[in-house]
Amino acid sequence: MEANIKTYTISIKREKDKYMDFILDLDTSLTVLDALDEIRYKMDSSLGYRHSCHHGSCGTCACIINNKESLACMTFLKDFKEGKITIEPLNNFKIISDLVVDISTMINNMPGGSYLRESELSKDSIKPYGIFEWNRFENCIECGSCISACPVKKDFIGPAPLTSIHREILKQKDENKITELKKIAFAKDGVDACDKHFLCSKVCPTKVAPGKHINDLRKIKN
Amino acid sequence: MAHNNTHVVIIGGGGTAIATMYDLCLRGFKVTLIERGELTSGTTGRHHGQLHCGARYAMGDRNIAKECMIESSILRKIAPNAIEYNMGMFVALNDDDMQYKDKFIECCLASSIPAKQIPVSLALEYENQLNENIKAAVLVPDGTIDPWRLVLSFASGAMLTQRATIKTYTEVIGINKKSNYIESIKVINHTTNKKEIIKADVFINATGPWAGSVAKMAGIKIEVTPSPGTMLAAKGRIANMVVSRLHKAGDGDIVVPQRQLTIIGSTQWISDNPDTNRVPKQDIDFLNKSACQMFPNFKNLEYHTAYSAARPLFGSYKKDEDIRNLSRDFVAIDHDKDDGINNMISIVGGKATTLRAMGEVVSDMLCKKIGIDKQCLTSSTPLPNYRDFYKGGYHGSKY
Q1: Which chain A residue has its CA at the smallest distance from B140's CA?
Q2: Which of A100, B126, B170, B223 matches a 20 to 30 Å C-alpha distance to B36?
Q3: What ipTM describes this predicted complex?
Q4: What homologous superfamily is domain B1-49+146-223+322-399 in, according to CATH?
Q5: Helix (H) or strand (E) segment spanning residue B149
Q6: The pTM is what?
Q7: With contacts defined as CB-CB under 8 Å, which chain B residues touch A134?
């Protein structure tokens, strides 16, 4: 198969409002994350960005690509008509450097509990001895895209933590724990702070639809 | 020297490095971990995602098989949140596979892996997307790992001891060697552009396929072969179990379901640079076809992505040798004996499933070396939730 090479200008927001352009030839089959790797290994070793799984599962590489919250590893160069791509760190998080943000504020608003849920596949099949239900990881990969896209400016724990609280309420069997979770969800900076912009659902890379989870929480408020 | 004043620097931020950090912290050491990028941004994060019970290795290397069985059981107990445990199945598709079956089961059992042949009808009940024409199925205790969250659980455990410091985006640029020991390392913090000298009593090189280049800074030669492989991910979950082909370990013979994805892997080639290894385009077609042999509907799943990571294989590769002959085992090297450096250990090779064991082996080696009798606690201590890692703020800075 032939390589399809194109020249790209990757413009990266580095210090406050300062953008740095990197011009490089890249195979169009590559991803934005591959482009960041190329820049870091061949042009500027100081470039900071987060990455781990390279297949949209860990959630570390979320950033703003051409004005939209996206996972760099799941954004393909071939999908850009123009050769210029602008990459900025997520909004509403503290910036550590370049594209690296501190997501601890988001995670610390999430409850403990299990990251597993029942798998939908072959749900009713018989299962091997020792397996009570087929399970899989939750859909939310905690990338922070929804929090970045959310336009709410008042105190708000944000879409991902509320989604996580809702999922935990659905799984939780202990009534006392459910009451505790509801207390967090219905505090002033919880569900009530959401202005229903639904940008969270629009940008979510794993289609969690946080806006729907917030709506579902509203329904169980009383 | 009281061991709780012993300062250990670990170079590397993947599964092995972080499991070693956790182990040493539980034993009371002070540890500083230096990683040039984000945690698990090298090989660990990009691995296939299989929690190996060892069945895949039972025919080739019984020791690795046994170790995988022990370690996968431990991980299931100490980090259940980071593992989809739905077991695994080896399926025979043709007569050659059938020839392999009895010996395979025998080798699994000899490695303490409870492999059990099940009726084809039951296999199809468990996995209704499986090729209806399979000739036999063997059940084994495999699973799926979320590598990022598994390793973060280990990091949480280390941070909670308050004896660990993690420095990410910090790259080693020099090693200050005295006659027979390392006095310090010189690092650059890419986020601040500041250079720093870090002294320690012991230095551990746990940089996977980069172990050779780190060792070189200390004037030491380590034979490590970066051996990348491709994984192809499709949207949609086609199975709950890990499904492997019942034949000699080869390319494209393991289907790992994960979250709402199905990942088939892998291939294997040799590279001289672990940094940027692009997925060969022919691998995608090959993996697609291989997956369809086990799951005919795989071809109807939407392409998600393909990725590759460099396995760190210990030893050097001889031209024309079968790459699969390079061992997947790990080796801990005390650089005192052969290289004349009395305070440096390197750990190379291994696999994600054995990360905890690798941490234990390095920590045991370190304790023995400096004459401290402290037992490993990691196999019996449940790991905290990976989210606890963030309780201390950015990389535990507030712990």
Answers
A1: A128
A2: B223
A3: 0.97
A4: FAD/NAD(P)-binding domain (3.50.50.60)
A5: helix B147-160
A6: 0.97
A7: 86, 240
